[in-house]
Amino acid sequence: MSGLRLRVVVTGAVQGVGFRPFVWRLARELSLGGHVRNEGGAVIIEVEGLRTDEFLTRLGHEHPRAARVDHVAVEPCEPRSESAFDIRESHEGGRPDVIPDLATCPDCLHELLDPASRFHGYPFVNCTRCGPRYSIIERVPYDRAHTTMAAFAMCAACRAEYENPANRRFHAQPTACPACGPALSFSDAAGAPCAGSPLALAAAALREGLILAVKGLGGFQLLADATRADVVARLRQRKHRPDKPLAVMVRDLAAAQPLARISEAEAELLQSPAAPIVLVASKAGALAANVAPGLPVLGLMLPTTPLHHLLLRAVEFPVVCTSGNLSEEPLCIDNAEALQRLGVVADRFLLHNRPIRRALDDSVARVMDGAPQVLRLARGYAPLLLPMAGPPAMAVGAHLKNAPALCVEDRAIVGQHVGDLENTLAIDALRQTAADLRQFFHAVPEVAACDLHPDYGSTRFAAELGLPVLPVQHHAAHALACLAEHGLTCALAVVWDGAGLGPDGSIWGGEFLHFRGTRFSRVAHLLPFRLPSGDAAARDARRALAALEGAQAPAAPFCSSVGRLFDGFAALLGLCGPQSYEGQAAMLLEAAVAPDCDDAYELPLINGALDWRPMLAAARQERDKGIAAAKFHNALAEAIVAVARTVGEQRVALCGGCFQNRYLTERALRRLREAGFTPVIPRLVPPNDGAIALGQLAALTGDHDVPRRTRPH
Predict the structure, then answer these.
(1) Under CATH, which number does the domain 184-352 receive?
(2) What's the pLDDT at 712?
(3) Strands 85-87 and 33-39
(4) Residue 278 burial (C-beta neighbours within 10 Å; 0-12, 13-18, 19+)
(5) pTM of the model as a whole
């Protein structure tokens, strides 16, 4: 063979997703010689022949959809006149990659439903393009012997596919079939096995209005008929979740159409390999009203595993699908544990015998400003790898929506959503997640980063690590996470959330932070007010309103939180009093917005502080709640533009939990662009506290002068 020979190094999420068989098939189609192998965290290709240019073009455009190509390095090398192309043994060493779990691919779904396939009706069919990954890995490198599938010896048919590079199950570590793989079982709430087809029994239980615990990809889920208000009410009562919206799973996009208005971008996100819960605009009347009470938004998801596909086709109605845990506790992953802890919630259990190594909750995402944005980084997205040059470090994240992160070599690795650190079980989950990251990525951290707040569970965990601990201010971490994702060093960061300890000992949450390289300054903020009983105020919007109206609390700390401002205005409009879940008041206030109102309340910037008092006085006189809600949101968007004009920085980053509000975020983005600015928002990491650990890592790079300790006062 004559022609050019190239050495191609592909980095990114390219192992465990069928990338080498794809390269092998492409090279053979183009009559090219050479070889492909895994090495460290990369795929190394040597390719030779007359059509190498076409090979490179198609390599970038036709790779498996579950792969993520971050960089392709190409250099010429000495021709060897090779005509054959083969897949070579992987070289161990280098840096490992761990691939997220992936939802059932179209090819496996076709086999699942094809009566002629040997995988017909098999609830664990998978290939290199889908199935469990991170949830079943015991240790690296990723091969079957190092996963919870080690106990299942492959039959001859599965072994033949596993060893055939032309087959999409070539080196698919979890591959299995009815003859050699995991199997289902079914039990009642007491754990007693039930005779019959587990799948048929599960479908019958759902039809009867029972609550079903299902062992999913990364943990247990609780399923129930989403069309019956009495069933949903029973689930809420048992799970102590009176109002928080519940996600709904449907069999396919066609079944979703009566429930929601789904854009093309949202449909693509729903059908992506990550298959997250996607927040979409709901249609009234199709579901029980208590699925998402008072909200025009629905958390919608498609089946993530073959088991879910079979179950949803068997019942033919939408089901509530919520995390299989008790309130404030981590996700259940073990059969015995689930029977013990969830027996007070579920009536029946659909189980299987493939062990889950680590809990991965369902990810949550939405389309914001025309593109996907992750709101909860978990199954399908975690662990997330991003470029970051910094010291070997472990960041332990925040107290709420906790997710740790690790910096090793030139990468940041963000772990999965752990949740709120409200009890020892949650702290144990954080401890295990951090240990997993260190083990999988061969990391030996030299420093730990945590929040400034000394009473956070994550801060106490950081002290256990036996490392120097550097506290990083909460809102600076929010900002730095967004800047790190977008590769920025200079920006005005608008960081609005519920609360975070400021370096002056007050409660921050309405901040404008100017970053110029490693320099940092607080250039504006919400006008502070005294807020007594901070945690209690977060649970009752009326307390925030009382504080805004000047209730006497001379000993209470000052607060500049936009999150509490949302609470106060929601209470003023009579939309919310006690909150049964975080952000309830703000979500109800957003839901009340009259979308055609472009007017805004006055929110003047005076000596670096946004004075909310004229806005509060005007809202008291407003007769229409929808108009008041719209003017409130519009005023906040205009205030962002006003501060941006004052600072004069071209890039403006919007981050913090308040920017989960779609109306506020999209209006602010539009107004900033109209004013000539270039705004950015977090997309790969959440805008909420799930991004804090990434920002804590970023604070350790480049000697940032962000506040790291509370000053005495």
Answers:
(1) 3.90.870.40
(2) 29
(3) parallel
(4) buried
(5) 0.94
